[in-house]
Structures are given as structure tokens and as C-alpha cells.
């Protein structure tokens, strides 16, 4: 059983060298019990090692600068320096680690702010252990992980406010969550926050607009190919062109833009 480093306090670090290929993780939460639980899960996983802990965002920046983690798993709400400020600080470090945010509520008002601060993903604190482990491993290679209910809320809020989140990379697996989110956010199309001016979707061809609408409905590339009788390669090409023309980097951003400006 992994040993808990509770004697070292919340800002503890590990200077031990790790084998190549091991994902180094820094835990940041003001609750020692939460950190202990996360440590048990992650230290028990293959190719993951918890190399440090911190009790708030300010401590996280200092510890991260010393232990050089690959991933920082950070609570979004903490007394003192919260997770948003901590995320900005960590991401400003040289060769910064990826930041995965933890939240107790899928309707947390700070989720979009943390995403804009540079977080690569969001997980609920009740995420199953196997999903937590996979999210940490994905974050280490730059792949986004977002709990489905968090993603649904994120799209609804962003569409209503006319804001576009910035994510490093997103996976096609978000499609299932986008299905529910697209329905939830439909009412946001006429919200006061809807952007004025030219419709950026006008830059798309008719086929690309159909692809964008399908992405906003949460369809994967495979499902789009089946629905439109296209090859997977053709769909991927169209999706890439949509990303380029809309100046976005992932499917969540495409969905938000479609919801903001209305589907055909």
C-alpha cells in the first residue's frame, strides 16, 4: 500500500527520480483527506507517481517549480489562492505541466474561467478511479478529459455568454456528452449574449456547415460518415477544414459557435 506523506504537510514534495515513462503528478486540494484518497488511487496505478502535494494555488506554483510534474490535479475551489489563479501560475512556469481541474459540482461557475486560464480538462470529484487514472494519463500527452455533465454545463454557459473556451486538444469521445449538451443549450441561441456582427459560419461551404451542425449534435466522425454516406477520411478532412475556417481547435468550440449563431 502506498505510504501517505502526511508528516510533510500540504506542500510536500518528492525528490526521488522516476523511471522513464512514469507520469509525475502534483495533487492540489485544501482537504488532506481528499489528497490522501487521490494519492492512493494514483500511486496504485501503473506508470503514475504522485511527486508532491499542495494545499492551495499559491503553494501549487512553488511545488510545481521544484518537482516538475507532468500533470497537476487541482481543486477549483480553495481558500486563499484558488484553482483558477493556481492554474494561471502553474501554466506560466517554464515547460509548464498540464492542469486537470477537480470540481465537486458540474455547475461550478468557475469552470469556464479555469478553462480559459489554461486547464486541459475537468473532472468531478466523484469520477470513478479508472476514469481518473485515464484522464491523468491522457492529460500527460496533451489530450483533454471532461466529465460529461461538466461539458454539458460548459457548452450551455459559453453559448449563452457568447464566450469560446480555449482548449489544447479534445477527443472525439466528447461526442456523447455533446449530444446532451446540444439539447440543453438550444435555448441559449437567442440569449442576450449571442454575438453580433457577421456569422463566422458563413465562411463554411454547404457541406462543411452540415459537418459543423453534426458535430454540434454530438456525432462522432464515424456517425457523421454513416449519416452522410461519406468515408471516414472525407469526414476527417471536412472537420479539419471547419476547425481551420472557424479558427478553433476542438469539437466543443465548434458546437458552441453553432449554438451561438443558430443551426440551419
Give an account of the 3D structure.
Residues 197-262 form the HTH luxR-type domain. The protein is α/β, with parallel strands linked by helices. Helix content is 45%, strand content 11%. The protein contains eleven helices and five strands. Strands 2-1-3-4-5 form a five-stranded parallel β-sheet, with helices on both faces. It is elongated and about 55 Å long.
Could you give the topology of this structure?
Layout: E1 23-28, H1 32-43, E2 48-54, H2 57-67, E3 71-75, H3 83-91, E4 98-103, H4 111-116, E5 121-124, H5 129-140, H6 148-161, H7 175-184, H8 206-216, H9 221-228, H10 232-246, H11 251-261
Parallel strand pairs: 1-2, 1-3, 3-4, 4-5
Helix pairs in contact: 2-3, 6-7, 6-11, 8-10, 8-11, 9-10
Would you list the SSEs in sequence order as H and E? EHEHEHEHEHHHHHHH
Main beta sheet: 5 strands, parallel
CATH topology of the largest domain: Rossmann fold
CATH class of the largest domain: Alpha Beta
State the fourth-level CATH superfamily of the largest domain: Response regulator
Spatial strand order of the main sheet: 2-1-3-4-5
Number of helices: 11
By secondary-structure content and strand pairing, the structural class works out as alpha/beta
Contiguous runs where pLDDT drops below 50 for at least 5 residues: 1-9, 165-173, 179-194
What percent of residues adopt helix (DSSP H or I)?
A: 40-55%
Spatial separation of the terminal alpha carbons: 56 Å
How many strand segments? 5
Please, how many domains? Answer: 2
Q: From the coordinates shown, what is the CATH architecture of the largest domain?
A: 3-Layer(aba) Sandwich
Overall outline: elongated
Please tell me how large the radius of gyration is: 19 Å
Mean pLDDT: 78
Strand content: 5-15%
Region (Disordered): 179-203
Protein name: Response regulator transcription factor
GO molecular function: DNA binding
Pfam families: GerE (PF00196), Response_reg (PF00072)
Amino acid at each position: 500500500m502506498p505510504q501517505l506523506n502526511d508528516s510533510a504537510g500540504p506542500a510536500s514534495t518528492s525528490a526521488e527520480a522516476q523511471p522513464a515513462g512514469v507520469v509525475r503528478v502534483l495533487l492540489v486540494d485544501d482537504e488532506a483527506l481528499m489528497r490522501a484518497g487521490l494519492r492512493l488511487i494514483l500511486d496504485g496505478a501503473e506508470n503514475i507517481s504522485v511527486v508532491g502535494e499542495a494545499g492551495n494555488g499559491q503553494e501549487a506554483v512553488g511545488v510545481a517549480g521544484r518537482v516538475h510534474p507532468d500533470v497537476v490535479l487541482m481543486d477549483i475551489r480553495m481558500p486563499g489562492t484558488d484553482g483558477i489563479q493556481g492554474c494561471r501560475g502553474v501554466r506560466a512556469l517554464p515547460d509548464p505541466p498540464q492542469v486537470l481541474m477537480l470540481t465537486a459540482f458540474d455547475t461550478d461557475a468557475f469552470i469556464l474561467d479555469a478553462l480559459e486560464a489554461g486547464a486541459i480538462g475537468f473532472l468531478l470529484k466523484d469520477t470513478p478511479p479508472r476514469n481518473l487514472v485515464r484522464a491523468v494519463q491522457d492529460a500527460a500527452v496533451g489530450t483533454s478529459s471532461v466529465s460529461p455533465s461538466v461539458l454539458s454545463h460548459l457548452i450551455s454557459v459559453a453559448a449563452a455568454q457568447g464566450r469560446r473556451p480555449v482548449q489544447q486538444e479534445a477527443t472525439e469521445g466528447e461526442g456523447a456528452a455533446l449530444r446532451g449538451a446540444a439539447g440543453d443549450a438550444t435555448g441559449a441561441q437567442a440569449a442576450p449574449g449571442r454575438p453580433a456582427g457577421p456569422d463566422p459560419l458563413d465562411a463554411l461551404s454547404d457541406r462543411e456547415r452540415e459537418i459543423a451542425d453534426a458535430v454540434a449534435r454530438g456525432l462522432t466522425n464515424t456517425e457523421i460518415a454513416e449519416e452522410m454516406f461519406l468515408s471516414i477520411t472525407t469526414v476527417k478532412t471536412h472537420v479539419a477544414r471547419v476547425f481551420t475556417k472557424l479558427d478553433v481547435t476542438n469539437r466543443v468550440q465548434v458546437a458552441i459557435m453553432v449554438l451561438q449563431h443558430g443551426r440551419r
